[in-house]
Specification:
- This is 2-C-methyl-D-erythritol 2,4-cyclodiphosphate synthase.
- The strands form two sheets. The chain has a five-stranded mixed beta sheet. The chain has a two-stranded antiparallel ribbon with strand order 2-3.
- It has a single domain, classed as 60s Ribosomal Protein L30, Chain: A.
- It contains five helices and seven strands; from the N terminus they run E-E-E-E-H-H-H-E-H-E-H-E.
- By secondary structure, it is α+β, with helices and mostly antiparallel strands.
Length: 158
């Protein structure tokens, strides 16, 4: 078994859609990035990459590559899942935490978990998504950005 930790952060900006865990959430700002800037999915991917010693998403999907401009992070997660399978790894579980002052994402969590588990080809009960604020402290607290942490546990396929 192997464990990996992922962390990602993106700035909030106007005139972008907000995508978290593959769910488009109605909000007046979105996350700035080369892809869809799905901070939650990016943290999950980095946790998986770390556990499998694949580097990180910057190495696999550089923002200098035009192929990834505007791409769905769920599509990138599917590519990470394929790499894991090629190398003989299976997801035991993922625990992820979104850090944002707003919007409230509680109603969207089941869909986020379903999207992430589907992209990974694993059971939905293996993916957990939580959210928290930072009590108006720091860049997440003043709503200038969002962050996410994720931990992933992998096991060798039989």
């Amino acid at each position: 078994m192997r464990i990996g930790h992922g962390y990602d952060v993106h700035r909030l900006t106007e005139r972008r859609r907000l995508v978290l865990g593959g769910v488009e959430i109605p909000w007046d700002c979105g996350l700035l990035g080369h892809s869809d800037a799905d901070v939650l999915t990016h943290a999950v991917m980095d946790a998986l990459c770390g556990a499998a010693k694949l580097g990180d998403i910057g190495k696999l999907f550089p923002d200098s590559d035009p192929r990834y401009a505007g791409i769905s992070s769920l599509e990138l997660l599917r590519q990470v899942a394929a790499l894991l399978q090629e190398r003989g790894w299976a997801v035991v579980n993922i625990d992820a935490t979104l850090i944002a002052q707003a919007p409230k994402v509680g109603p969207y969590r089941p869909e986020m978990e379903a999207n992430l588990s589907a992209a990974l080809g694993t059971d939905a009960d293996r993916v957990n998504v939580k959210a928290t604020t930072e009590e108006h402290l720091g860049f997440t607290g003043d709503s200038s950005g969002m962050a996410a942490h994720a931990v992933a546990l992998l096991e060798r396929l039989p």
